[in-house]
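Quick one, probably user error.
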C-alpha cells in the first residue's frame, strides 16, 4: 500500500472553527489501494433535518454530490475513475465553519 500523507481531512474534531462550506472525501481505489483526498467548496446546502423525508432527501443530495465530485476529480486530473472504490471518510461543514456531516468507514 502506498505511504499515507496527512491532508486537510485529518481534522481535529474538537476544533470548533473549520473551513466554511467544505465537502471532503477520502476515497480508496479498491483495485490499486491508492487513497485520494478530494476537498471542495460546496453550495452551503445544510438543511435543518426534522423528519425522515428530509433525511432521505439529504441522503440523496449527498449521494449525488459524492458521485459528481469523484467523477469530476478523476476527469479533471486525467485519471480513470476506479470501477470499485470505497469512501473512507466524508466530511461537510456549514457556512459557519461548523461540522455538519461526518461519516467514516470503521474497520
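Nope, works fine. Designed sequence:
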Amino acid at each position: 500500500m502506498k505511504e499515507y500523507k496527512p491532508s486537510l481531512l485529518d481534522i481535529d474534531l474538537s476544533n470548533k472553527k473549520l473551513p466554511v462550506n467544505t465537502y471532503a472525501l477520502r476515497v480508496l481505489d479498491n483495485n490499486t489501494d491508492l487513497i485520494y483526498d478530494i476537498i471542495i467548496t460546496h453550495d452551503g446546502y445544510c438543511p435543518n433535518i426534522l423528519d425522515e423525508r428530509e433525511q432521505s432527501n439529504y441522503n440523496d443530495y449527498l449521494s449525488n454530490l459524492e458521485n459528481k465530485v469523484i467523477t469530476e476529480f478523476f476527469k479533471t486530473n486525467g485519471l480513470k475513475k476506479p470501477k470499485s472504490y470505497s469512501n473512507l471518510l466524508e466530511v461537510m461543514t456549514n457556512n459557519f465553519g461548523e461540522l455538519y456531516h461526518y461519516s467514516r468507514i470503521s474497520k
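The first strand starts at residue 22 and ends at 29.
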